[in-house]
Amino acid sequence: MKILHEIILITVAVAIAIAVASGTLLLEEEKKIISSSTRGQVRQMAGYAYEAVDVYFSSAKDSVEVLAQDHEILDALRDETVEALEKASVEMTGVELNSAVIENVGLHNDKGVVLAASEGAKAIVGRDLSDRNYYKQIISTKKTVVSEAIASSLSNKSVLVAAAPAFYEGKIIGYAVGAIDLSDLKKRLSALEDDEADVILLDSLGNNFLDTRKAGISITTPTIEGDRIGFQVLRELEKNSSGFLELSDESGKKFQVSFRKLDYATVVIIHSQAQLDKLIAELFSLILVGAVTSALLAVLLIVVTVRRLTGHIESITQTIEDISKGKLDTRIDPKLLKRDDELGELARAFDRTIVSLKLSMKDKPKD
């Protein structure tokens, strides 16, 4: 039975190899499906962030544009009387209180001097802010602008401001300015952290002015050695206005990064693949267990089948040995004779041989 034992070993090896190969192929396919699904989720999150940022900044821009066209504001810019400026201050305070987007609203003349402000920003009245870039942009473009991140005139924090020109008889007579309150926007974007995603906003100069992360990647001044992700994102931004990257940091952690330049800010979404790697590891464990279980079941089935086959062959072998010892009444097991496979044909052939041998022995003359 050595040959059968060798057949068993070979069959078992083949079964295990097939199970492992099938499991590996299945794992690769599942990894592709999961990775594709994750990329789709990241793009969906990025779409949400892009829309939220765009709507937020557009709302800030619209607020100062409406204010710059208000008749109380225009009267204050034309007359610059105490009464007119006080009415403008009341108007700006109302806008600030009713807006979730802008705060510290101010009214500047065409020379950049603050003439009036909302209640919370009156400390800047009388100041000359003509050195600000947004003032220079308004004068040159005659359009509403959103500044880069600048030091606030009222606090130590960095802010962005939206500024809209006010026109009278086709000429700029001043402009309305509002600091963009980013607290509500940050709350909206921070909701993405539940999905292992962080959001970074860059201003027109590439400065990081909003970051939902508690710590980590530096986008503003990264180096290859200190922050590979930040460096690669900035390098990609120099070439493309939008894109999707799969990157690794210095420790080998993988991230999916989506970015897009909008009118007033650049949005960067950084999604950790830690959850994805964990899911793939769990999937690998399940597939490995399934492959081993399948292999064991296959081995068990093969062993049972071969043992049955070995038993039948041993039965035939025993019958032949009995015949060789002169036991001519010995017959093949009837169950084997009824089989309709090759083993049954072998059994029937031996049975016919036994019958022929018995007949020949009867016909043989006795001495």
- CATH top-level class of the domain at 59-183: Alpha Beta
**Structural class by secondary-structure content:** alpha+beta
Radius of gyration: 42 Å
For the largest sheet, list the strands in their spatial order.
Answer: 2-1-7-6-3
CATH superfamily of the domain at 59-183: PAS domain
Q: What is the end-to-end distance?
A: 41 Å
Topology of this structure?
Blueprint: H1 2-68, H2 71-79, H3 82-98, E1 102-109, E2 114-117, H4 133-141, E3 145-146, E4 150-151, E5 158-159, E6 161-168, E7 171-180, H5 183-190, E8 197-202, E9 208-211, H6 228-237, E10 242-248, E11 254-261, E12 266-272, H7 274-324, H8 334-337, H9 342-363
Antiparallel strand pairs: 1-2, 1-7, 3-6, 4-5, 6-7, 8-9, 8-12, 10-11, 11-12
Helix pairs in contact: 1-7, 2-3, 7-9
What's this entry about, in short?
It is built from 9 helices and 12 strands. It has helices spanning 2-68, 71-79, 82-98, 133-141, 183-190, 228-237, 274-324, 334-337, 342-363, and strands at residues 102-109, 114-117, 145-146, 150-151, 158-159, 161-168, 171-180, 197-202, 208-211, 242-248, 254-261, 266-272. The strands form 3 sheets. The protein has a 5-stranded antiparallel β-sheet, with helices on both faces.
Using brief descriptors, characterize the structure shown.
5-stranded antiparallel beta sheet; Beta-Lactamase; 367 residues; Helicase, Ruva Protein, domain 3; alpha+beta
